[in-house]
């Protein structure tokens, strides 16, 4: 098989080689479907109303803290203070977990960027060896 390059050189490549497979894939273009219109407010409300209670959007990632007391109408000021303290404590704990998750996410993002850069470098080296 004879292949013409951009700089007007002709090289001979045997059929069935890796080079032939690489070039044939590079020519294919994927045509994506048009993007649908975003839903309007009525459609969003309808979707939320039809959702099941166990829908992942409505389920918390952490179990609710069952030892937190529920406020009553005639709540004692000391009980209210204790309830608010426990609630605040639970929020602070959740905030710490979120910060840890955020730092873990940043770490994983950096790992992915590094892996992507390594992959890009490997691809460039393979292309240079192929030429």
Number of helices: 3
Strand order within the widest sheet?
A: 1-2
Q: Any idea what the shape is?
A: flat
Strand content: under 5%
Structural class based on helices, strands and sheet pairing: mainly alpha
Order of helices and strands: EEHHH
Low-pLDDT residue intervals, each spanning 5 or more residues: none
Distance between the termini: 16 Å
Average pLDDT confidence is 78
Radius of gyration (Å): 29 Å
Count of β-strands: 2
State the helical fraction.
55-70%
Largest beta-sheet details? 2 strands, antiparallel
Oligomer: single chain
Walk me through the structure.
Belongs to the UPF0449 family. It comes from Python bivittatus. This is UPF0449 protein C19orf25 homolog isoform X1. By secondary structure, the protein is mostly helical. The chain is 56% helix and 5% strand. The chain is built from 3 helices and 2 strands. The protein has helices at residues 18-27, 41-50, 77-130, and strands at 2-4, 10-12. Strands 1-2 form a two-stranded antiparallel sheet. The longest helix is centred in the last third of the chain and has 54 residues, at 77-130. It is flat, with a radius of gyration of 29 Å. The protein starts with a strand and ends with a helix. The model has no long low-confidence stretch (mean pLDDT 78).
